[in-house]
Amino acid sequence: MVSLQEYENQVPIAWCPGCGNFAIFNALKHALVELEKKPHEVLLVSGIGQAPKLPHYMRCNAFNGLHGRSLPIATAAKIANHELTVIVIGGDGDCYAEGGNHLIHASRRNPDITLMVHNNHVYGLTRGQASPTSETGFITKVQPHGVISLPLNPLTLAISQGASFVGRGYAGRGDHLTALMKEAILHPGFALLDILQPCVSFDHTHTYQWYEARVYLLGSEYNARDKLSALQKAEEWGEKIPLGILYQLQRSTFEQMQPVLNNGPLISQKTDPHKLDAVMDEFT
How far is CA 176 from CA 53, 144, 170, 171, in A? Predict the structure, then answer.
């Protein structure tokens, strides 16, 4: 049996009191424990930001990389060792701005990794500038006249580019979020889980009260295999915001389509250093 204590890492947490990151942090630990994942079987990959600090606070394998560059690292890790449960942790700035191009191509390639995005509509680490998901008119110290760009919709983007699992959770619904995380982790392929998270310091619009008045759970009658319905649900925002698995299908993973991996993950394949000599001779 795996326990929550096995994931405990005695590192001071730097998030603001009341931050939605705490609920996401707790939900992830519970999801991994309920899935009987041991710390040495899990790799958390992150970039830069308040959300990507999460791996620092957990006792498991972790790789903290460059801003927005987590998905290529996670893909490489999964190719090298299929037995790892690879989870990318990021914020809306880290994953949708600097890392937006990698989101597109991860959706296309379908590696067996899970991307969990803490979406709080601001850059929390650098004190509240607008992020790609900030709504038009949102006022910050950097945008004193309000954001003029349209907000990015990561759900429609991922669905349109072939992501095989697209879901949305909310930090205020811990049990539901834990269940969603388990589904995303178990899904064989690229899973995007966008998690709505109030920022108590820099976003005084999207508060817990604001979300509670709007979020609702997708019912059992909803068909997550219907791409058109998924796109329509992904566009719902404002008065009603759906939570759950918006889209899911089964297709070959990136690893399954690589002939070099037919004999297993790279970590288990035997190598012959002498074969490199013939390659190097071509350059002499």
Answer: 23, 37, 8, 9
Arch. (CATH architecture) of 4-253: 3-Layer(aba) Sandwich (3.40)
Residue type at 258 in one-letter notation: Q
Each residue's pLDDT tens digit, 253-277: 999 998 888 888 888 888 777 878 8
Positive or negative torsion for Cα 250, 255, 261, 267: negative
CB atoms within 10 A of CB 212: 11
| Residue spans per domain, the chain | 4-253
C-alpha distances in Å from residue 19, one per residue of 15, 28, 95, 120 = 6, 15, 19, 10
Q: What token pair was written down for 131?
A: 């992020």
